[in-house]
Design a protein that fits this description.
The chain is built from eight helices and 13 strands. The protein is of the alpha/beta class. Strands 3, 4, 5, 6, 9, 10, 11, 12 and 13 form a nine-stranded mixed β-sheet that branches. Strands 1-2 form a two-stranded antiparallel ribbon. The radius of gyration is 18 Å and the shape is globular. 55% of the residues are buried. This is M20/M25/M40 family metallo-hydrolase.
């Protein structure tokens, strides 16, 4: 996430087998209310039979490349992030994700070095709903080389944000190989988030000018370590601004998505790539995160490496989020709404 030093929280060390689905319906809507009084009504939800699409080995395979020393911290405009881009493009191509534009690369117009978002799409299967889009995103850049600590100058950015990038790549692999989405899904990996959300600002403005019919933007940031002593597994920024958490929990059939007071206190809603889409489109736009200000102390440091992350946790989160994304993509009406 962007500019946490500016809000004085460095001491807190911030920032954030196949799943088989069956559609079920109920005569009466199911209600769920979160700690902020946010309520959702879902009349059709997905049920999970086998929640094991990915595993820690697959997560580790992606993470071990994205957060490797070879990529030199993935600074925007660098050779390292260019290697990451090629890797992401290859993953998209191999798993049936088409390029959203003429190529996967969306070149930034607001940054002085050549940088690009990677943007793919899986078209929806419903002839009407496919014209509604859900954007699932994460930033794949980090801060590159920094002041050495114990001879190490590479800020690998494993949690920030190879973790979110890996999650999005796995979501894309699932939908690209199963095509179970009625609405169309855009998968976007942003560059230059660390420079001021520049990649997402560029793409949000571009897509708004192209009249994209955007239903929701779901962003993933710092998901590499589990929450501690919480009764939910992931929180969203801007919790009180829509019913996304409540809808997610109905679909998941558990208290999966919660409210982190500290996220509201430090206004994290405005500090990741969901925010430009909120500004441009005024649709539900949130970041999913599992960093809670107590479980990770290597923000923008050389210590943000794979060795301190929990790949099993990451796989569990991806597996639990897949039916949530699938449910949101497949309901007849747009159940996720702004308050």
């Amino acid at each position: 996430m962007k500019s946490l030093l500016a809000i004085g929280v460095l001491a807190l060390a911030y920032t954030c087998g196949t799943t088989q689905m069956k559609e079920t319906s109920t005569d009466a809507a199911t209600d769920i209310r979160g700690p902020e009084g946010v309520k959702a009504k879902i009349t059709k939800v997905a049920s999970v039979d086998d929640n094991s699409f990915t595993d820690s080995q697959k997560i580790g395979e992606i993470m071990n490349f994205l957060a490797s020393d070879e990529l030199q911290g993935r600074d925007s405009g660098s050779e390292g992030i260019a290697k990451a881009a090629v890797y992401i493009e290859k993953g998209f191509e191999e798993n049936g994700i088409k390029s959203y534009y003429s190529t996967y690369r969306d070149t930034l117009s607001n940054f002085d070095k050549v940088s690009y978002n990677i943007v793919g799409v899986v078209e929806g299967s419903d002839p009407i709903l496919k014209n509604e889009y859900i954007l699932i995103g994460a930033h794949y850049d980090h801060i590159g080389m920094i002041t050495p600590e114990n001879g190490d100058a590479i800020a690998n950015g494993a949690n920030d944000n190879a973790s979110g990038t890996t999650s999005v790549m796995e979501f894309a692999r699932y939908f690209g190989t199963t095509n179970t989405n009625k609405r169309s899904l855009i998968f976007a990996l942003f560059s230059a988030e660390e420079k001021g959300l520049l990649g997402s600002k560029h793409l949000a403005k571009r897509m708004k000018s192209e009249n994209l019919n955007l239903y929701a933007m779901l962003n993933f940031e710092m998901t590499g370590v589990p929450l501690q002593d919480k009764d939910y597994q992931v929180y969203i920024t801007g919790y009180e601004m829509s019913n996304l958490a409540a809808v997610s929990n109905v679909i998941a059939k558990e208290n999966l998505v919660g409210f982190l007071p500290t996220a509201k206190e430090f206004n994290l809603f405005q500090r990741s790539d969901n925010y430009p889409f909120h500004n441009e489109f005024e649709v539900p736009s949130h970041t999913f995160c599992t960093f809670d200000f107590t479980n990770f102390d290597h923000y923008h440091k050389v210590g943000d490496e794979n060795e301190i992350l929990d790949f099993e946790h990451m796989a569990t989160m991806v597996n639990k989020m897949i039916p949530v994304l699938e449910g949101i993509a497949n309901t007849e009406g747009q159940e996720v709404k702004l308050k």
